[in-house]
């Protein structure tokens, strides 16, 4: 089944496959949650000629993503236990992939390398990958999934053909949520759609992580300020004492969305809102590599929102 917004990427991909010389490196760019990873795997399977309906992994598709963060977590993975992931894709993973490129593909004449997300490559890993992109083995194709392409080295971007994945209209998002998350009430769906900014995956995550109350707490702080710190305490409690990385990322993206919505329409002074949004962008960028303390992060988000509260007054209000 083709996901919403994937028609044009599929047209470009299949046109390239049918051409005389297909580009060896592709950058799949778009918001987190629009299905780029699913596309990468399906496109790789089509490229190497995997049989329709063939289950399991394929020996000629190599996928690099977050691995265990250390040897202890590696042992847990080997034992089939839950393990804590690293916050980046490391050079050892790139080296291991490159070692495999010295051999022929197992079942055919093509091999696909998926890196998801490529914008979380360590600097040394990115430099190592660049060498493979500069001199790719015959029959090897790279699919780099990127939520924030600007974080990639310019030299990597310049060697890739870009496939852009669009966001989804609010009406389509609402239809999807009604169909796939029937338990979500109208206010939750509306908040999820606003927070997701066109990303179906982000909208479903909003519902699954029950972020509706978090969104309302953020809005309360923006509306009322928080001189007594009670609202910030409420926000911290809703975020949780030990949120995992996915919840922290979702909360940061939600905060950015809540703040960005205040820019729709005239504000008496938009600068505090713009400054707050910039700070939230910075925190979001640091989140993959910094080990944030959940309580301190929640208070920092709340403080940024409280500082921006005065800017919610409309210019004509």
UniProtKB/TrEMBL annotation:
Highest taxon listed in the record's lineage: Bacteria
Pfam family, one: DNA_pol3_delta2
Annotated region (Disordered), positions in chain: 59-83
SUPFAM superfamilies (alphabetical): P-loop containing nucleoside triphosphate hydrolases
Skewed-composition ranges (Basic and acidic residues): 68-83
InterPro entries, sorted: DNA_Rep/Repair_Clamp_Loader, P-loop_NTPase
GO cellular component, one term: DNA polymerase III complex
A Gene Ontology biological process term: DNA-templated DNA replication
Gene3D superfamilies per the UniProt record, alphabetical: P-loop containing nucleotide triphosphate hydrolases
PANTHER family: DNA POLYMERASE III SUBUNIT DELTA, REPLICATION FACTOR C / DNA POLYMERASE III GAMMA-TAU SUBUNIT
Protein name as catalogued: DNA polymerase III subunit delta
Organism this protein belongs to: Qipengyuania flava
Higher taxonomy: Bacteria, Pseudomonadati, Pseudomonadota, Alphaproteobacteria, Sphingomonadales
